[in-house]
Amino acid sequence: MKETIANIILIGCGPHANRIYLPILKQLEQEGKANLCLIIELESKKEEVFNRLEKFSIAPELLFIESFKNSLPTDLEDYLTDYIESNNINGVIIATEPLVHKPYASFMLDAGINILMDKPITTRENVVTCIDSAKLILADYEYLLERYNSSCGNNVFIVNTQRRFHPGFRFAINLIKEVSNITNCPITSIQAYHCDGQWRFPNEIVSQKYHPYCTGYGKASHSGYHIFDIINCLYSSSISNMKCADSMEVVSSFVQPDGFIKQVGEEDYKNILPEIDNGNTNIWPTENEIKDFSNYGELDLSSIITLKKENINVANFSINLIHNGFSMRTWVQPGTDLYKGNGRVKHESYNIQQGPFQNVQIHSYQSNDNHDGMTCLDGDLGGNNHFDIIVYRNPLIASTKKSMEFYNINDILKQMEQGTTKEVLTESVKYKVVRDFISYINGTLSREDIKSHLDEHLFSVQIMSSIYQSHIKRTQSEDCIVKTKIFE
After folding, report:
1. N or C: which end of the chain has fewer CB within 10 A?
2. Contact 45, 15 (CB under 8 A)
């Protein structure tokens, strides 16, 4: 059977697209599987796009537009309608600011186009202060899901949450499923921790528009959604319909930039960084800018999620997500790449209990912000691909005499029958997401083999929406327990 070529529109050509989408699409073009036909980006980013395309030696058509909110401009809709029809477009990658995910996805669903979209599914301006905006995160998802379910054909809508594809997390899920099948015991506790290792100076909090704080959202809408989603995957893998929780209660607390500048003040920066003390650089915002910091998005958040069945507590999850944590940054001026480098290191861990039967611990800690030029797997503690799993099993179900087993990333790759890599795994699995997307369009991968369909994300979105709602209620001195029906 002849394969169908994937004719792709890439919407958004920022740092993430530069790191992930452009290189894999270039490779897929060389393999004859895909054509990158069109890139859409903001007019203000024109020079950056030209520089990126020159580096990859690719020349798609380009459309530069002005920014918009809420709905696509009529002229953009008309342009896309004509372009899709005349160029036989059958796939789109949406890699934009998440505030415009919904209008682009809505249009592409109506046009019958296969969609691969970055996380989060949506967010809203001022979601850290406006309860209606926090609730709209869930409403947006339900709207897109209804459109997806009612659309004609077998098109896919994939959300790029790469931990679903990561061999380490898939191995952990296999361990959880194995014990669930033996004991019928679901996950009873999860402690999840993620730190981006970013140190943004106060003036950068005001000015930077990539993963911004100044539009009223932060960590939960940045990398935080990945953590909500893998919690969804872990828990869902462990439960039967008979034991599935039917509601949850969420309590959360944020640290915003107004709290951050109380932790490290202007004089502290001058003491730590002599360049600032010499008057060469001013990193401190104006008084008027600081007054707005209480409306800025969250740097750090903590949340407790209580799962209930028939109004009885059956599991507790704790989530601690941090932007303002250990960083390798030692310089004043930010780097040009705000996605990787710039002092950013990742620390991530999970402690998962399955009643008295199993404890699965996941540890992933980097100590280096240079992720390029790797020559080996680099899986030791502090390495770019550090990923260890420690498993403790009750002797009644342990398959060996040892109740503890340790697996490093090399062990895991062997167990999952996957070869080693000289790339950062969290990036190489994003390439796999794109390959799967293109393979589906080519007709060489079935719908059943696709991971991260839109309809698998309800619980992830409910967590995100509830966490924002709880914080807002706390700041307004209201009852900050947010109650939600789940897995409906």
Report:
1. N
2. no
